[in-house]
Amino acid sequence: MMQPGMREMQELNMNTSMKDVIAWYEKKTESIIGKYGPGPRVHFHTGLVEPDATPAPNIDGLNRQLVQSQENLLLEAARFWNAESHLCGTVLDVGCGLGGSSIFLAQEYEAHVHALTNVPGHIPWISHFVDQAGVADRVEPILGDACAVPGEQVYDSVMAIESSCYLDRADWFRHLVERVQQGGRVFIADCFALSDEVREPFDRYWLTRIGTVEEYTSTAEEEGFKMDGLLDLTSRTARFWELSTLYSRRLLGSQVPEREAERLRRSIRWQTQLLGMWNNGKIMCALLRLVLS
């Protein structure tokens, strides 16, 4: 059984690109908690929204809708990934954000989770939310690189929710071969490019390296992983961006500092563009299942 607490490790050796990502997330932490909090299960990923859902009339109501939509995505992922069988052991949660998905697995499936983040400022927040949720004996925050995970733990399963798009997939899958048990699973929820024209704007805004399903599949197969299933959620997640944009517009309509107002205006422009890509078949939002054969 894992012991609670953060693993000790030496300073990470990361390239400038990843340092930019870390700095970006450090700056966004407050706004993430404001929009998707209060916790303890705070998520920073897309959510499932029903086509006939009516947007709430105020910011607090939109907050609740957004959070519930993210929980709904986790529930759908858990069903597709057969969490009762495959996410109830020792799990590595790659790019865990503020720990929401790790807490979800610990509470709903009694998993023992290593909540991996490369953002130093997120470790205290994860620990806080884990304590608040009462799962400190099941969730251990870890500061580290997804392609060089600290420690020697070999995992039953690995989960990456909208984090694999930041990674060099070849390096990542090569490393996972050493850290996943034979017959173990890798579960991915992410966005995938269906058109080359989305790559530059998507990567520029999120600081990612968006890939295609074909690239994921071929790269994983080179390391011994086999694609075991794909669930396309694109149409069921599109309205998340409508609610998210509306949240930003309503927040912009309140009294916010000019710096925050400029951030919100930029976010609205991007999310409007992103929704167009979503609806025009240029981006896929999907769940993947892979098994180490």
Q: Could you give the topology of this structure?
A:
Layout lengths: L15 H21 L22 H22 L2 H4 L3 E5 L5 H10 L2 E6 L4 H12 L5 E5 L11 E7 L7 H11 E14 L5 H8 L6 H10 L2 E8 L1 H20 L4 H22 L3 E10 L1
Helix pairs in contact: 2-9, 9-10
How is this structure best summarized?
The chain contains ten helices and seven strands. With 293 residues, the chain is α/β, with parallel strands linked by helices. It starts with 15 loop residues before the first helix and ends with a strand.
Key attributes of the depicted protein:
10 helices, alpha/beta, globular, 293 residues
CATH architecture assignment name of the domain at 16-27 and 82-235 and 282-292: 3-Layer(aba) Sandwich
**Global mean pLDDT:** 93
The total strand number stands at 7
**The first-level CATH class name of the domain at 16-27 and 82-235 and 282-292:** Alpha Beta
Percent strand: 15-25%
Helicity level: 40-55%
H and E string:
HHHEHEHEEHEHHEHHE
Structural shape:
globular
Number of helices: 10
Poorly predicted regions: 1-16
CATH H level, superfamily name of the domain at 16-27 and 82-235 and 282-292: Vaccinia Virus protein VP39
Cα-atom radius of gyration:
18 Å
Strand order, largest beta sheet: 3-2-1-4-5-7-6
CATH topology of the domain at 16-27 and 82-235 and 282-292: Rossmann fold
**Main beta sheet strand tally, sense and closure:** 7 strands, mixed
Give the distance, in angstroms, between the N- and C-terminal Cα atoms.
26 Å
Overall structural class, as computed from helix and strand content, comes to alpha/beta
